[in-house]
């Protein structure tokens, strides 16, 4: 047993070290890419700036020489019939003017270089920000999923190792172990299915086909599916729904209501009531699921739709289990349908989850 715990702690440390190393490598690659992108921005801007500077210099150079010739000819017409060649003083003046033009253009290009470098670095960061957020989201997803998988797998492995070393293991205990193991495997299977479902809605503009569907039908299907679970706790589900139609996935919208009803049943006391109600406001339909459960504390409300988030011990002590993915999946599905979902709750007064979806037609 001690050996198993030592291995578990070692694996945990290795996992944490691996995640830190992976994050360091990722940040190095991101910063390197950002600097490369900044360099390309800077190179393009400076090529344009220097090209314009050369054109401007050539234009000013010819203008200075032309002005010097015209000025000299005006003076000489008043004195001589034929203009003498340029004096050394005139040549020095023209040369000095050219040098000043070059200096001014160099200073301007230097200022452009500094400003462009700073702005290019900022612009490169903004360009890479969506990619960074996507990669960060994927890293968090993998890290969280790995952590959630490791705990039940470690528990399952430890239980098997302990019973395997037990020389007095009876057939009854072996059957009990197998039964518990099957339950854990069922939970892991459900977890993997939830992960797959979440990944479907993880990216915007996904491949989920949309069609005209009835919100009422989706609610009725969800209630029908969850009714046996509610009856186990003698919970009544009341429906106060009208006929509304939206454009979306019938499977996905039904899943949203299944998740909300499942969540309400889990945290509701026996012989209580859950109410599903719809109403129309503007061009949207609002569907609320109200329970009489223990409610959610204010500190948990901002995170209730976060992936793998579970509220404090007060909600956990009900022994409902789960991996904290249900509400996150519901939010992803609602977001994919251009809707919104929010919750209102207070401790010991129940919770109200409200989904808003854009309407197509109303009857």
Automatic annotation (TrEMBL):
Membrane spanning stretches: 37-57, 101-124
Source superkingdom: Bacteria
Q: Which reaction does it catalyse?
A: ATP + protein L-histidine = ADP + protein N-phospho-L-histidine
Keyword check for Ion transport: no
SMART domains according to UniProt: HATPase_c (SM00387), HisKA (SM00388)
Per the record, the coiled-coil ranges are none
Q: Which residues form the Histidine kinase domain?
A: 144-361
Q: List, alphabetically, the Pfam families matched.
A: HATPase_c, HisKA
Per the UniProt entry, the Enzyme Commission number(s) are 2.7.13.3
Q: Which InterPro entries match?
A: BphY/WalK/GraS-like (IPR050351), HATPase_C_sf (IPR036890), HATPase_dom (IPR003594), His_kinase_dom (IPR005467), HisK_dim/P_dom (IPR003661), HisK_dim/P_sf (IPR036097), Sig_transdc_His_kin-like_C (IPR004358)
What the entry lists under SUPFAM superfamilies is as follows: ATPase domain of HSP90 chaperone/DNA topoisomerase II/histidine kinase, Homodimeric domain of signal transducing histidine kinase
For this UniProt record, the keywords arranged alphabetically read as follows: Kinase, Membrane, Phosphoprotein, Transferase, Transmembrane, Transmembrane helix, Two-component regulatory system
**GO molecular function per UniProt:** phosphoprotein phosphatase activity; phosphorelay sensor kinase activity
PROSITE patterns, alphabetized: HIS_KIN
Query: Which GO biological-process labels does this protein carry?
Result: cellular response to phosphate starvation
Q: Which PANTHER family match?
A: PHOSPHATE REGULON SENSOR PROTEIN PHOR (PTHR45453:SF1)
Q: What is this protein called?
A: histidine kinase
Its source organism is Candidatus Roizmanbacteria bacterium CG09_land_8_20_14_0_10_41_9
């Amino acid at each position: 047993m001690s050996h198993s715990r030592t291995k578990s702690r070692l694996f945990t440390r290795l996992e944490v070290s691996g995640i830190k190393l992976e994050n360091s490598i990722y940040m190095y690659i991101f910063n390197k890419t950002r600097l490369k992108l900044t360099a390309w921005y800077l190179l393009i801007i400076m090529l344009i700036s220097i090209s314009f500077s050369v054109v401007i210099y050539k234009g000013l150079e010819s203008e200075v020489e032309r002005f010097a010739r015209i000025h000299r000819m005006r003076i000489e017409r008043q004195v001589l019939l034929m203009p003498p060649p340029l004096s050394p003083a005139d040549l020095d003046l023209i040369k000095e003017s050219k040098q000043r033009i070059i200096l001014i253009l160099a200073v301007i290009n230097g200022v452009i270089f500094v400003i462009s470098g700073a702005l290019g670095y900022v612009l490169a960061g903004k360009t890479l920000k969506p990619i960074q957020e996507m990669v960060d989201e994927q890293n968090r997803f993998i890290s969280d999923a790995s952590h959630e998988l490791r705990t039940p797998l470690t528990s399952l492995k430890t239980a098997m190792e302990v019973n395997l070393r037990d020389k007095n293991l009876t057939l009854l205990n072996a059957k009990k172990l197998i039964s518990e193991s099957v339950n854990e495997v069922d939970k892991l299977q459900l977890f993997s299915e939830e992960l797959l479902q979440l990944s479907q809605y993880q990216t915007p503009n996904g491949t989920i086909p949309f069609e005209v569907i009835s919100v009422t039908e989706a609610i009725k299907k969800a209630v029908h599916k969850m009714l046996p679970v509610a009856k186990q706790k003698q919970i009544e589900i009341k429906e106060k729904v009208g006929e509304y139609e939206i454009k979306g996935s019938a499977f996905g919208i039904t899943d949203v209501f299944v998740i909300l009803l499942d969540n309400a049943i889990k945290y509701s006391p026996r012989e209580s009531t859950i109410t599903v109600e719809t109403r129309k406001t503007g061009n949207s339909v609002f569907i609320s699921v109200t329970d009489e459960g223990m409610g959610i504390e204010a500190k948990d409300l901002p995170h209730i739709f976060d992936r793998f988030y579970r509220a404090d011990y007060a909600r956990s002590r009900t022994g409902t289990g789960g991996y904290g993915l249900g509400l996150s999946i519901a939010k992803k599905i609602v977001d994919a349908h251009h809707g919104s979902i929010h919750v209102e709750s207070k401790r010991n007064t129940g919770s109200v989850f409200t989904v808003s979806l854009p309407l197509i037609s109303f009857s």
